[in-house]
Amino acid sequence: MSDDDVAAADDLSAMDEREAVREVTVRASGHEHVSAEHASTFEVTSDDWLTPAGDCILAVEADTTPADVPRSFVDACRSRTATITAEFRAADATETVTGHGHPDLSYEGDRSMVGRTSDHVDERTIMIGADKAAAEFDRRLVTALERGAPLTVTLRVEP
């Protein structure tokens, strides 16, 4: 490889890094059946309904599902060393969850995104090894969501 080829490859790598998406914003709505009692997961769904059995679901009518997330974000999440953070904001309450990436994260789910305290991965999983589940969320946030407050979730990845 010539010096020019190496320089061109370095330029492309730097451009890819600058253009890589490292933050995704999801907007959703609370619902009267939000209870946030699940001990190992949290979930945000694009469905417009929720039953009392959905004790991990924090919000409905999400405008983004895992399948909508840019590929550069997903690729960064596929590193075992990636740190993935989800910040939840509703009313005057904020909750932050930190977890990890995994090579098997596909972000192919087209209905809901799930954070897990375990290492289980499926098409809905957005992070594993989360440092908290729905049951540990700030109750002020949960109460606001139960009252139907709008929710903003900001996902960030550090590869």
Automatic annotation (TrEMBL):
InterPro entries listed in its UniProt record: DUF371, Mth639-like_dom_sf
Gene3D superfamilies linked: mth639 domain like
Protein name: DUF371 domain-containing protein
Biological source species: Halobaculum saliterrae
